[in-house]
Structures are given as structure tokens and as C-alpha cells.
Write a structure and sequence with these properties.
This protein is mainly α and 127 residues long. Helices cover 69% and strands 3% of the residues. It has one domain.
Length: 127
């Protein structure tokens, strides 16, 4: 069965899907651990995996367009990372920061393309 080029998975796309899946899984375990009050040392591996896969996703996303940093998708990603920085800066906010990051990440990932590609600099969607 030939699905055609529009539905074929390239090597890069397959890797992006695998990294995103690993990121979601690590983040889910990190968030669950924070929610249920797990000891910080037991969450360290999930925090590191979440950060590492997030960094790979960030690099991949930023490589899609030279305009990324001032498009809505770039700004949302940087806010997402900034919220997570609260965990290191103020550990008492860890539980709230993880939940806020999950909400920001989920909403940002599911916005319509025209909104995600909206450029604050150009005041219109740009590729």
C-alpha cells in the first residue's frame, strides 16, 4: 500500500516523533512524581531526560525557520523553558511550574499553524 509522499515518514521526522514521545513520557513521570511528592533524588533522572529531550526538540524547532525566535512558536517555547527554570530557582514552585509548563507546551503545540508561525516582528505569519 503506497501512502504517497504526503504521509511518508522521513528519517528526520521519525527522529522528531521519537524525541517528542520520549519528552512527553519523561515529563509525565516528572510531573507525576512532583504531584505525588516523590523525593527530589528519585526525580532527577526524569528531570534530566525531560531537559535533554526538550533541548533536542528546541534545537529541531529552531532549525525550521530563521524567524523562529520571534514567531509565536519560538516565544511560547522560550516561555515554556523559562517556567521550568523556576524549578531550579525556586524549588517550592516545582509542582506549579511543571503543571504550567505542561499546559503551555500542550497549548503551544496544538495552536493553528497561522498562529504558531505569527511573527511578532513582521506582524503576520511567516515561514
Amino acid at each position: 500500500m503506497n501512502l504517497g509522499p504526503a504521509t511518508s515518514l522521513t528519517g528526520r521526522r521519525s527522529i522528531e516523533i521519537a524525541v517528542r514521545t520520549a519528552h512527553i513520557a519523561a515529563m509525565a513521570l516528572l510531573a507525576g512524581g512532583h504531584h505525588f511528592g516523590a523525593a527530589p533524588p528519585s526525580l532527577r533522572v526524569w528531570g534530566v531526560l525531560t531537559a535533554a529531550t526538550g533541548a533536542v526538540l528546541l534545537a529541531g524547532e529552531a532549525s525550521h525557520s530563521r524567524h523562529w525566535v520571534y514567531q509565536a512558536r519560538g516565544v511560547i517555547s522560550l516561555v515554556h523553558v523559562g517556567v521550568l527554570a523556576l524549578i531550579a530557582l525556586a524549588p517550592s514552585f516545582a509542582r506549579a511550574a511543571v503543571v504550567a509548563a505542561m499546559i503551555i507546551g500542550s497549548v503551544g503545540s496544538h495552536l493553528p499553524r497561522g498562529v504558531r508561525k505569527w511573527s511578532l516582528r513582521h506582524r503576520r505569519p511567516v515561514d
